[in-house]
Design brief:
This is Purple acid phosphatase. Belongs to the metallophosphoesterase superfamily. Purple acid phosphatase family. 16% of the residues lie in helices and 30% in strands. The N terminus is likely disordered. The chain is globular, with a radius of gyration of 21 Å. It has 432 residues and is an alpha+beta fold. The strands form 5 sheets. Strands 14, 15, 16, 17, 18, 19, 20 and 21 form an 8-stranded mixed beta sheet that branches. A 6-stranded mixed beta sheet has the order 13-12-11-22-23-24.
């Protein structure tokens, strides 16, 4: 059976494995826009770089990743002057197999040290490759994050990406569910081509969702094969032993990416790592702390209720985030937008994180349009629309959060909130 045919077969028969796809629903989704497939441009040859994306490594380095169909040198040449000869750096090349699919050559090069808030020009692989450019994040405030979850590759996705491209963002944060390939590996290639115009210009920092698992009982036992191969994040630099959870500092913000679909209990490696990572935060250096997960800990939508990735992970880790005075927790998974007040253990608490669910990037499954009623007091705003968010951290004390709804394919600012960092609140000192 062809790979695409096998993938469709697996998706259609996934109900046989109760919960194995991780996205089985008990509610009726509204009509969704179908997937589209981004073909490789005809002017590319087998050595041409494609699916280029960048990610931050440490505070002054960047990982550049790209794919070629044939074996080519994993070399980046970069400079601050367009058209000029630059510094050349060589990295590594890998590939992966998934059933009958074999990926292209996945190249990764880490370049730096780089200057903050600076445009760099670069070529992937050879002098004949097109010149691309990216801008490094600032070294200090202000910094603007684009935040979007559950992207997929539909017309809604395209609309969301267009709106993000129009914003003045420094870095994109994605709390899981990237391509919605769901076993059909060529859809990972399509997704890479779709996001390249943005992901090659600003760092994309991601964590995994349930659609990245791609484990098939008895047939393909390894989890996150494509995700780990294609979207390598800087986990080693933060002392993590897994690409599924890590942290990094940027411009006065400590960002933590957690893994909802790997062990998270009190005896797990992730729990021990998180506990140690939170203990190392220097609030003088990074007065803001932001956490991303995929499965939300707070959710009044009828979708994804009662899942262990939400309930058990919250029971295991919520106290750690509360004691460390995390400012904001972003989640995906639920295909709608919802913003909570500062909450801990189900109750309003002025020293707890603000929880925001933003799994509304544009997936093929449609929106989760039904909410539980009556609405809980801790839920302040909820709407089932596609869109994206922006977190503009102005200084060590103040930040503006806005959610931009895709209304009739136009970006509409539908929700906004000024935040004050907990590190600046005298009543919210970090608990040991």
């Amino acid at each position: 059976m062809a790979v695409r045919g096998l993938g469709l077969f697996l998706v259609s028969t996934g109900l046989a494995f109760n919960g194995f796809l991780g996205n089985l629903q008990t509610y009726n989704r509204p009509p969704a826009r179908p997937n589209f497939f981004v073909q490789q441009p005809e002017n590319l040859n087998s050595a041409s770089p494609q699916q280029v994306h960048i990610s931050l490594v440490g505070e002054d380095k960047m990982r550049i990743s790209w794919i070629t169909d044939s074996s080519t040198p994993a070399t980046i040449e970069y400079t601050t002057t367009s058209g000029a000869q630059g510094t050349s750096v060589t990295g590594t090349t890998s590939s992966y197999d998934y059933l009958t699919y074999k990926s292209g050559e996945i190249h990764e090069v880490v370049i730096g040290p780089l200057n903050p808030n600076t445009v760099y020009y670069y070529r992937c692989g050879s002098d004949s490759a097109p010149e691309l450019s990216f801008k490094t994040p600032p070294a200090q405030f202000p910094i603007n994050f684009a935040v979007v979850g559950d992207l997929g590759q539909t017309d809604w996705t395209q609309s969301t990406l267009q709106h993000i491209a129009q914003s003045n963002y420094d870095m994109l944060l994605l709390p899981g569910d990237l391509s919605y390939a769901d076993f059909i590996q060529p859809l990972w290639d399509s997704f890479g081509r779709l996001v390249e115009p943005l992901a090659s210009q600003r760092p994309w920092m991601v964590t995994q969702g349930n659609h990245e698992i791609e484990k098939i009982p008895l047939i393909h036992k390894e989890t996150f094969t494509a995700y780990n191969a294609r979207w390598r994040m800087p986990f080693e630099e933060s002392g993590s032993d897994s690409n599924l959870y890590y942290s990094f500092d940027v411009a006065g913000v400590h960002v933590i990416m957690l893994g909802s679909y790997t062990d998270f209990g009190p005896t797990s490696s992730q729990y021990s790592w998180l506990q140690a990572d939170l203990g190392k935060i220097d609030r003088n250096k990074t007065p803001w702390t932001v956490v991303l997960i995929h499965a939300p800990w707070y959710n009044t939508n009828t979708a994804h209720q009662g899942e262990k990735e939400s309930i058990d992970m919250k029971a295991s880790m919520e106290k750690l985030l509360y004691q460390a005075r995390v400012d904001v927790v972003f989640a995906g998974h639920v295909h709608a937008y919802e913003r909570f007040t500062r909450v801990y253990n189900g109750n309003t608490d002025n020293c707890a994180p603000v929880y925001i669910n933003i799994g509304d990037g544009g997936n093929r499954e449609g929106l989760a349009s039904k909410y539980q009623n009556p609405k809980l007091e801790i839920s302040l705003f909820r709407e089932a629309s596609f869109g994206h968010g922006e977190l503009n951290i102005v200084n060590s004390t103040n930040a503006l959060w806005t959610w931009h709804r895709n209304d009739d394919d136009e970006a509409v600012t539908s929700d906004s909130l000024w935040l004050t960092s907990l590190s600046s609140e005298s009543a919210c000192k970090v608990q040991n």
